[in-house]
Please model this.
Amino acid sequence: MADAEAQNVAAAPQSAPAPTRSKELYPMSKWKYDIFLSSMSILADLFFREVHPRGSWKVPRHGPVLFVAAPHANQFVDALILQRTLRTEAKRRVSLLIAQKSVHGFIGWASRQVGSVPVGRAQDTARPGKGTLYLPDPINDPTLIRGIGTNFEKDAEVGGMVFLPSIKGHTGASVDIAVIVGPEEIRIKRPFTGFVAMSQLTGRDDIDENGQFRDKDIKGVKEGFEGTKYKLAPHIDQTKVYEAVFDRLKAGGCVGIFPEGGSHDRTELLPLKAGVAIMALGALAAAPDCGLKIVPVGMNYFHAHKFRSRAVVEFGPPLEIPPRLVEMYKNNQRRDAIAQVLDMVHSGLSAVTVSTPDYDTLMVIQAARRLYNPVGKKLPLPVVVELNRRLALGYEKYKNDPRIVDLHKSVKEYNRQLRYLNIRDHQVQYAKMSWPIVVLTFIYRLAKLLVLSAGVLPGLILFGPIFIATKVISRQKAKTALAGSTVKIQGRDVMATWKLLVSLALAPILYNFYSSIVAYLVYQHRLWGRVPEWVPIWAVFVAGWIFFPAITFAALRFGEVGMDIVKSLRPLIMCINPSSSYNIHQLRERRAELSTQVTDLINTLGPEMFPDFKDTRLISDHARSESNESNPPPLSPTRSTPTRSTPRRQDSGMSSPGGYADSPPPTGSIRRSTTQSGRAIPRNESFSNIGQVQLFATRPPSRNRSRNSSVGGGFGMAGFPISAFTALDSKEGFDEASKKIRAAMRERGQMRRRKSQAGKNAFVDGLESTDEEEHEDEAEKKER
Model:
């Protein structure tokens, strides 16, 4: 019955009457949503020093929106930051998908307040199976699996899944069960592939890196092989999940998903899950005229697991799924349609995130950005993220160039010297200061630190137990998460969540304990006679709940400033000490050489990537000349952005510094040669019943496709499409050209607003700019 209903909904013609709206499975209460989010935002403000939204004006203010956020680097904290930013900046409430296993305790209660949709995952319900598995004939019959000491008729079920063991660095392979032949035999929907899986199931040594057998004459497993352990998961019907998502989208609401499927602490995007494409295509198949948009969201953190860290939440241009893909999805070509939508999403995410192959490369890229940045010039966080992204794209293209290889080694060695001396890059410039200035600076900062200590010590002493507990418990949880995952590196993605949860649990207990002690002392002897008799005990208790949290907040704020000062003292001491000042002066000379080398190389390779390299930049020539740097242009195709605070659009954190990054990619020009996205999707799966489709079926990672896709996110273009000229002989071509014109108008309006704010325009020009902005805002409203 569920299959027939899903097919009827998917195949309903546009002229068919809308079905009666049923009661929502996971309803959202607006007042509960707002109250809960306002309360939890206090924790976010305490944990993060700054959360900077970027490009929030791109979020449609009306109509259904599917938000896809990545990288998922901070477990439940990502959800809080995303929901809060959308509510504050775009005035939108969003229902997020959450793993079913997490819907318990406080997290479960919190998810219900904000209308989250729980999703069951097969890997969460998998249990170890009895006996072992092997492939009796891996060459001629790779879908037949035989067991030793198993009882598949009792333990397994058709539609369930078989999981092979995970090994370090590799997620265990999994596949659906098609037929249960007997207690010791099953057939799977598709063969296992890859070196690891085939080695686990055969024990043979003649397997190449692609999982193919070199010796075709050997039909069975290695002699003496006893099989491999495994896990079995029951069939999970996702029909209810999709129904809840479709209902929310058809009603004009917002749904959010982290398409990587789980949190991680890697420096690159994980393979995306097919569920996001199925949701978008299914919603449009059921309601073709609903106007669904997909908005990519980049969650860019700086030390996400640490207290008082920073983050930039960047919104990309909305993506629209072409009608032809919806028709493909409705006409049993679902695999290709899903693969192309995944390409669109991956390209959109690549344009709003910084992705590098490993942590060392990320550190080198960030060091290169600092070496290229004018000395003493503090860039806004969005500009920092943009520069990192451009440099990452440049490194990906030129990483085999001998000049880049040599520079990579030099910058890596420079980073190693900084770690050896335990100083930061910006602190190397202290070597420019004269000895008396260094001494005076050291004395001034030491005195400032002593003053700040008076505000830090009370809170540090009173709430030391919470600080210690959060650190210990979060590290233990990180180790547990790391042991149970094959994609995490250090498990840092869970640390921030557990720090907040532990603080949320222990802080009220501690506040209550201290307030009770003070109330008891007042009750006993009026706090040694210091409290008048007319003051009631309950008022003392309430005052304690105000006083002690205030001390906590003061300790956090004074402490973050004090820690910055503490970190700055070591390089000053090194400059004062004659035995170590030579090292830091040498390091400064080395930094100047590297800065020149980085700048020259960027100026050489930049024009090869960006035709308008000299005319468009993030950092102006004037800014570089003021900082005594010889080569001005940065590796960026974006326009000049003032370093001071720029004028904001309503509902926006900061206007995007570039035209290319903000140009919405044409959704109609999807890359035709899409093959990678669909390879992990079973070819024998028709997707006729969306309830049977694995929500978490993965697509393989491909670094080249996201860099070179014509959808957007092409190399160096941050989402700017590399495609042929638009043909105006069709409605789609005209609409595409209109979108580009409107995007150019918005960019022009932003540039005019910045110039007007800076006082560079005359009064008459300012009036003309204001009049044109009003027309552009009206065009934007009509478009949305």
